[in-house]
Amino acid sequence: MDFPNTEDFQKLSSQIYQNEGIISAVCHGVGALLNIKLDDSHLLIKDKVITGYSNDEEVLAKAMEKIPFTSYVVEDERLITGQNPQSIKNILKSLTIFNKVRHSNDNVYLNNI
């Protein structure tokens, strides 16, 4: 799959984000976020802080049998990205916390109706 140029993925991701959903990617998958446009024609990642698997890490991975990656996750509103495979657990934690906060706010809202 050519991540940055997959129109179906771009449309689906744009719809999810614009309907208050969360977009998350890790490692090389962050490349799929590069060309996602919102209805206002701005890119999803415009003015966002993101991370992903760098070219330098790719070169190091080929030069070494095993790299001791450490988790690195960046959250910017409803966009959550992880730098490398070790970041997956922390992305899941971020998603879990985000959803708990979202649902607790829903309950507060519902209790005030």
From TrEMBL:
The keyword Lyase applies. It comes from the Bacteria. Keywords: Lyase, Stress response. SUPFAM superfamilies: Class I glutamine amidotransferase-like (SSF52317). Belongs to the peptidase C56 family. HSP31-like subfamily. This is DJ-1/PfpI domain-containing protein. It comes from Clostridium gelidum.
